[in-house]
Each structure stands twice: as structure tokens, then as C-alpha cells.
């Protein structure tokens, strides 16, 4: 079981690696295709996957059923749109 303080640390990791430009785009609510790809890569990395592996796992319905897995699946759908 993950304690709340551990969850905060885990959640903050991608933000530490996130570029200021990407952070500003997210806060502004509009991302370019390249920024969307960068965000997918960060989220996939949190799952221990490459973008290609995350895409394959999403197609097969095998991403983890958690917040990060759901985020990756959603972001991949946005990229495909």
C-alpha cells in the first residue's frame, strides 16, 4: 500500500522532469502535438515503458488500470485524433 506522502513523491517525479514550456502549456490548457508527445513519453516512463510499448499495451488493453495508465490511454487517443 502506498502512503499519501509516497504518492505525492511519485506524482511529483514527472513534474520534475517536465520542461517549463510543457508545464506552461498544460497550465494554459493548449498543447502542440510535440508537447503532447513529450507528455506521453513522461507518463509512459512513469509506467516503465517507452512510448512505443505504451502504444502497444494501450491497443491490447493491457495498460495498468490506474491514474497513470488511464492518462496514457487518453493522451494517446488525443494524439490519434
What does the model show?
With 81 residues, this protein is mainly alpha-helical. It has five helices and no strands. The chain has helices spanning 4-17, 20-28, 33-46, 51-59, 67-80.
**Share of residues in strands:** under 5%
Assembly form of the protein: single chain
Alpha carbon gyration radius? 13 Å
How far the N terminus sits from the C terminus, by CA atoms, comes to 36 Å
Q: Give the helix level as a range of percent.
A: over 70%
The shape, in one word, is: globular
Sequence of secondary-structure elements: HHHHH
Query: What is the β-strand count?
Result: 0
Low-confidence stretches: 1-12
Number of helices: 5
Q: Biggest sheet, open or closed, and with what strands and sense?
A: none
Q: Tell me, rounded to a whole number, the average pLDDT.
A: 83
Structural class: mainly alpha
Key descriptive features of the protein:
81 residues, 0% strand, disordered N terminus
Helices and strands, with pairings:
Blueprint: H1 4-17, H2 20-28, H3 33-46, H4 51-59, H5 67-80
Helix pairs in contact: 3-5
Would you kindly provide a brief summary of this structure?
With 81 residues, this protein is mostly helical. The chain has five helices and no strands.
